[in-house]
TrEMBL record:
<feature type="transmembrane region" description="Helical">
    <location>
        <begin position="187"/>
        <end position="207"/>
    </location>
</feature>
<feature type="transmembrane region" description="Helical">
    <location>
        <begin position="115"/>
        <end position="136"/>
    </location>
</feature>
<keyword id="KW-0472">Membrane</keyword>
<dbReference type="InterPro" id="IPR009571">
    <property type="entry name" value="SUR7/Rim9-like_fungi"/>
</dbReference>
<protein>
    <submittedName>
        <fullName>SUR7/PalI family-domain-containing protein</fullName>
    </submittedName>
</protein>
<keyword id="KW-0812">Transmembrane</keyword>
<keyword id="KW-1133">Transmembrane helix</keyword>
<feature type="transmembrane region" description="Helical">
    <location>
        <begin position="143"/>
        <end position="167"/>
    </location>
</feature>
<feature type="transmembrane region" description="Helical">
    <location>
        <begin position="7"/>
        <end position="27"/>
    </location>
</feature>
<dbReference type="Pfam" id="PF06687">
    <property type="entry name" value="SUR7"/>
</dbReference>
């Protein structure tokens, strides 16, 4: 029994909503000192030997946060906060900073480019969510939602790849310098799960758009047309048989 367009559209909408929820949670991590946002971060590092730095530091898209009792304690937010430990935006010193961070813009540029790509992914994702409501009942809605979901997927992959690369490299540099560092499990789990959700949403929307009328069980118009012509031809057939 073929699956109806309504079911496929609903599944696409469900995966879209799931992806957007995970993306928004990661995007807003560190904005407020309340659960769950104070538990979402990209990298945690033991910075107790860096002058003026907190004992534990966490990087988010908005700021560098200190850690107290296992929770992030963040100050004023600044969008597109870079991952650049020696700069004046972060610690403002080279003391006990891994040498790999000094004299390079690699970490600064990679981390900053991820922010606008995330905003673009969220934009197309939100559009896909609203058009996904039309995908439940219309073919054009399915294809438009699939296109928007595909664009969101592309930019989500770019964003997730950038932050994964830069913070994995940063973690390794800090660990090599004797400063214990670990990635934020929630942030990266959310981002990569969102990638999977977008893939499934694209698939559901495309399958929904490919469903034909016959697959939905639609045959009323054809039957009415056949009934009209058969009734119109019936008298002439009867006269031929009588002759």
């Amino acid at each position: 029994m073929p699956v109806s367009r309504a079911v496929l559209g609903f599944l696409g909408l469900l995966f879209t909503a799931g992806a957007l929820l995970l993306m928004w949670l990661t995007f807003l991590g560190g904005v407020r000192n309340s659960n769950p946002l104070n538990q979402i971060y990209f990298l945690q590092v033991d910075t107790s030997n860096i002058p003026g730095a907190p004992a534990l530091s966490r990087w988010t898209w908005w700021q560098l946060c200190a850690v107290e009792n296992g929770d992030s304690q963040c100050g004023s937010s600044s969008p597109d906060y870079p991952f650049d430990p020696p700069s004046h935006r972060t610690f403002g010193t080279d003391v006990n900073i891994p040498a790999a961070f000094i004299g390079t813009n690699h970490y600064f540029l990679t981390s900053r480019f991820s922010f606008p790509f995330m905003i673009i992914a969220l934009f197309f994702g939100v559009v896909s969510f609203f058009t996904g409501m039309l995908a439940i009942c219309t073919r054009i809605g399915s294809y438009i939602s699939a296109l928007m979901a595909w664009l969101a997927l592309v930019f989500q992959i770019i964003t997730t790849s950038l932050i994964t690369a830069v913070y994995v490299q940063g973690r390794n540099r800090f660990n090599e310098n004797g400063q214990k560092a670990r990635l934020g499990v929630k942030a990266f789990a959310f981002m990569w799960t969102a990638v999977a959700c977008w893939m499934l949403a694209c698939l559901m929307y495309c399958l929904g758009g490919s469903v034909s009328r016959s697959d939905r069980g639609y045959s009323g118009r054809k039957q009415r047309r056949r009934g009209f012509f058969s009734s119109a031809r019936q008298p002439s057939i009867e006269r031929k048989e009588a002759a």
